[in-house]
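Recall that a protein's primary structure is simply its ordered list of amino acids. Everything else, from secondary elements to tertiary packing, is in principle encoded there. The following example makes that idea concrete.
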Amino acid sequence: MDLSFFTMPVHPLHRNYTETLKEDREVVILADRLGYKDAFVGEHVTDKAENIPNSATFLASLVSDTRTIRLGTGTSNLSQSHPALLAGQIAMLDHLLEGRFNFGISPGALPSDAEALGILEKDRNEMFVECIDAILALWASDPPYHVAGKHWTISTRKFTDLALGVGYIAKPYQQPHPPIFGTVVAPYSKGIVALGERGWFPISANFLYPRWVKTHWPQFAEGRKKAGKTPDPADWSVAKSVFVAADEATARRYAKDDPKSPYRFYYSQISKKLISAGRGQAFKDDANAPDSSIAIDAVLDKLVICGTVESVIDQILAFREEIGDFGTLVYAGHDWLDRDLAVRSMELMADKVMPAVNRAIGRSRAAE
């Protein structure tokens, strides 16, 4: 099992914007130093807590400060930008990283973003599909371009001059395109079927109860089979909120019990946002239970793995046993209320927890 990193990020509203951006950069640099495979960074235009309006721009600031980690948009919200702009910008980032890039994509879920951009009443899922299809068409073809759609028509037929290089949109470093990832945030997601059909990669969100995460693999496998491919659990990534500490009391306090816990703040924010969007099912074992039944303490107990190295190893293996085999555990980023504890958790996760988890998985497979 590989280890990756994903941050939305989610910071307390009182924190200084410059300082949180510095922290967001520092955590990716740390993940690179510790050998995490990937780092995905989210984006929202109108969210003070989730403070990165353009993940590709943010990742560009890390090109020279990272060495081996693959950097990924987590995600580019495709309904919110013109596909020709995205095609050129993402291709450039892929070249700057010399192929250390993952293209995470989504429609964009925050209603206030859509309102600010004047697309609140539009079918953003439809725009999302049209946008990625247009980007791939541009990358697969040569000028002059003409890609017609319902929401965008992209053409350089009138003014292409190949001798001058005018009318040309850059192709990515990785051919035919960077690996494409989609975050999966709904139980029994139909979108994950499409990811499987198209040869793209799913990341199951860390704010879904395990029983709902478990529904993702059959959906993804169905998509791979539709494409005539054999489903491989190695292609499935699952995000999880994890905190590792030297003792159980510290772990429990920082990850769950302290009213100022960054994990408590994170899930308070995310649960309120999803409930207001009519997506509170993520935080229920019974989909028919009222949203009023959702309690933050129960959410933390269900969704946060915390403890000593030995305890976290056991909890990760139990989680894998519950949802099934998967290829990458994605460590979810949280605000660094206590920098030393947060850094140490990531270190212990890379140096102690994952090697032991993989030894246990290896023994289990050998015994089968």
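Residues 339-367 form the longest helix (29 residues). The chain has 13 helices and twelve strands.
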